[in-house]
């Protein structure tokens, strides 16, 4: 992987303490942990592979001059004390767990980006004015228990331990048993909660997992918000009947209604918001027989937007459309909200600083885009200001061995992260008039 990264690397990008060759070596070392036969990555949460990756990241934190600690949720935190405002901090990081047969950039790039910024300061003989923390969050993907973001939820005190305690992985092992493998337990997870009142900002670098930046020909984008997903379960109930003996004008076909609903749902988001999306991803037909008119269809709709009001309007119109179609087709319908997570917009001040960092660093017009996927930044953003930077993903592929971002693109984004981090710290100094808060 290292040589592949270096093949088309623009070596002039290694400057200001940011070293592309070092980043390539570290991405390569991480890719070897939990590697799969198809060239992918499989580091399950709280597995020996995730622990090995965390330990390796911790060694790089120490190399960058950071003091490393591990909390009760398994999160790894490297701390670099600030020179003038050590009582205020900027955090940055991501995760090292992966989905089965995932890629090598989703999560690791954000972790290594944070460490690279700290390493750059050390190599340049500099100390940041504010305390800087690089973080590796546990169990972001949720692949083991189908319930992720555990590390960031524990750190913010929002983790539902009663719910977690009832979960089992595919091998039948409970959440508590898996924690014990790492010397952790439910009480230690509970104690992982932190006070975020001293955090100026949490900054996360992540691959885009989409095609917007690639189509724009840009390495780096500034995230304007993380979409909050809402899941609806929609049921159409008609009347099952014999496919041969029931005339076409005397049918209550639930699947016809559901099919019409699916095509109409696609049109709703664009009429409301440029960042809204809606996806029918799952459908179950009853009785599901070749020669039986469908009597009941249950389907799911995943609705997301970075704006709460717009997302809720998409939900309202989706429910109304289901009812309209049901009435028109002579069938019944019902909707149930299975899950609803509020969107997390990036504060305007940090969005502006991110845009300025791109202009200053890359000399290009900032590309502002939404994140349709959830990230640890979404959770931390409930407690502290946050911002995100995206790196171009080749072909938009993610959660797959073919996941790839060029080394040049990765390094450009890390340069932007360094400039953004320093801008946040400078702004904090100005606000505090250079006073020493401890």
TrEMBL record:
Zn(2+) 2 binds at residues 106, 141, 399. The keyword Hydrolase applies. Residues 228-323 form the Peptidase M20 dimerisation domain. GO terms for molecular function: hydrolase activity, acting on carbon-nitrogen (but not peptide) bonds, in linear amidines; metal ion binding. SUPFAM superfamilies: Bacterial exopeptidase dimerisation domain, Zn-dependent exopeptidases. PANTHER family: ALLANTOATE DEIMINASE-RELATED. This is Zn-dependent hydrolase.
């Amino acid at each position: 992987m290292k040589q592949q990264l270096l093949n088309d690397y623009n070596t002039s990008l290694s400057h200001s303490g940011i070293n592309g060759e070092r980043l390539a070596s570290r991405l390569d070392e991480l890719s070897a942990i939990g590697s799969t036969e198809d060239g992918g990555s499989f580091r399950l949460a709280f597995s020996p592979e995730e622990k090995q990756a965390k330990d390796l990241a911790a060694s790089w934190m120490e190399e960058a001059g950071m003091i490393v600690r591990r909390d009760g949720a398994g999160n790894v935190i490297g701390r670099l004390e600030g020179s003038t405002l050590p009582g205020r901090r900027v955090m940055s990081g991501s995760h090292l767990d992966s989905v089965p047969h995932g890629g090598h950039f989703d999560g690791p790039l954000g972790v290594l980006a944070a460490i690279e910024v700290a390493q750059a300061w050390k190599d340049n003989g500099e100390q940041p004015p504010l305390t800087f923390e690089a973080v590796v969050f546990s169990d972001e993907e949720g692949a083991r228990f189908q319930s992720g973001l555990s590390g960031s939820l524990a750190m913010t005190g929002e983790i539902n331990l009663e719910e977690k305690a009832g979960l089992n992985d595919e091998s039948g092992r409970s959440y508590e048993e898996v924690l014990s493998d790492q010397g952790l337990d439910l009480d230690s997870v509970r104690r992982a909660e932190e006070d975020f009142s001293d955090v100026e900002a949490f900054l996360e670098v992540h691959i885009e997992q989409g095609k917007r930046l690639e189509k724009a020909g840009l390495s780096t984008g500034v995230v304007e918000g993380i979409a909050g997903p809402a899941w609806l379960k929609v049921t159409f109930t008609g009347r099952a009947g014999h496919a041969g003996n029931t005339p076409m004008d005397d049918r209550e076909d639930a699947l016809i209604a559901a099919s019409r609903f699916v095509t109409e749902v696609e049109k709703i988001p664009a009429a409301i918001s440029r960042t809204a999306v809606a996806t029918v991803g799952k459908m179950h037909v009853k009785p599901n027989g070749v020669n039986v008119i469908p009597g009941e269809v249950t389907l799911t709709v995943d609705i997301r937007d970075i704006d709460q009001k717009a997302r809720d309007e998409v939900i309202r119109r989706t429910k109304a459309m289901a009812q309209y179609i049901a009435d028109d087709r002579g069938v019944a319908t019902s909707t149930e909200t299975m899950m609803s997570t509020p969107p997390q917009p990036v504060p305007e001040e940090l969005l502006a600083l991110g845009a300025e960092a791109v202009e200053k660093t890359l000399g290009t017009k900032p590309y502002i885009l939404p994140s349709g996927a959830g990230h640890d930044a979404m959770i931390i953003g409930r407690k502290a200001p946050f911002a995100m930077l995206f790196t171009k993903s080749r072909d938009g592929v993610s959660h797959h061995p073919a996941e790839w971002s060029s080394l040049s693109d990765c390094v450009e984004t890390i340069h932007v992260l360094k400039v953004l981090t320093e801008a946040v710290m400078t702004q904090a100094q100005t606000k505090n008039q250079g006073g020493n808060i401890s």
